[in-house]
Amino acid sequence: MTSRLVLASASPRRLELLRQIGIEPGEIRSTTIDETPCAGELPRALAERLAREKLAAALRPEADEIVLAADTVVACGRRILPKAETEGEARACLSFLSGRRHRVMTGVAVARGGSAAGFRLVETRVAFKRLTEHDADSYIAGGEWRGKAGAYAIQGAAARFVSWIEGSYSNVVGLPLYEAAALLEGLGYFVRTRHA
User: Fold this and answer.
1) Of the residues 4, 32, 146, 154, which has the fewest C-beta atoms closer than 10 A?
2) In 10 A of CB 159, how many CB atoms?
3) What domain count does the chain have?
4) Is residue 194 situated within a structural domain?
5) Is 71 a catalytic residue?
6) What is the pLDDT of residues 101-155, one digit of tens each?
7) For residues 150 and 129, what is the distance between their CA atoms, to the nearest angstrom?
8) Sign of torsion, CA 185 187 188 194?
9) Predicted local confidence at residue 2, as pLDDT
10) Which range of residues forms the domain containing residue 115?
């Protein structure tokens, strides 16, 4: 019998992505950790640290369950863009991304009980067109940016800004599905495809 799967994230996007490939977590167990980057911390290191810390916070070693945790970081070079909470932050992110390539990194961590564990870090490169003032104003007015790393959601209205992408699309949404499924299968959790 397959162990119960716990998703250590309150992100509706991650839940939707898992459901897309036939995975229905038995529990959503969101965690609260300090996501502030450490002094001099690079984007890849931040994504890995936060995913591992979320996993550790959600893990119950005595339980027969598999826990999956993830964290996504958007960066230009070494600069880590925030999860925008204000219009000012959103406007600053969009201004910085305008006409540039950036990287989206997601750390995915899984563990089964107190023993077996796995980790992957996935990076996708994305390019934005040069944004006009109208582009930024209309996107910000829609509110879709709130709480999103880099102040955008590629699966929403911001798709019109993306001129080029290299790598996993689902990673930019918030969870690289190929890698997440592979990690789960490595712990004995096999995806059962639903038939129409």
Assistant:
1) 32
2) 10
3) 1
4) no
5) yes
6) 999 999 999 999 877 789 999 999 999 999 999 999 999 999 999 999 999 999 9
7) 15
8) negative
9) 62
10) 4-186
pTM: 0.91
Kindly report the backbone phi and psi dihedral angles of residue 111, in degrees, each rounded to the nearest multiple of 5, phi listed first: -155, 150
The CATH number covering residue 99 comes to 3.90.950.10
Residue 191 lies in a domain: no
In a domain, 192, yes or no: no
Give pLDDT tens digits for 28-67.
998 889 999 999 999 999 999 999 999 999 999 888 899 9
Of residues 34, 64, 71, 135, which has the active-site annotation? 71
Residue 97 to residue 145: CA distance in whole angstroms: 13
Q: How many residues does the chain have?
A: 196
Handedness of CA 132, 86, 84, 75 (dihedral sign): positive
Instruction: Label the pairing between strands 79-81 and 65-76.
Output: antiparallel
CA distance 154 to 157: 7
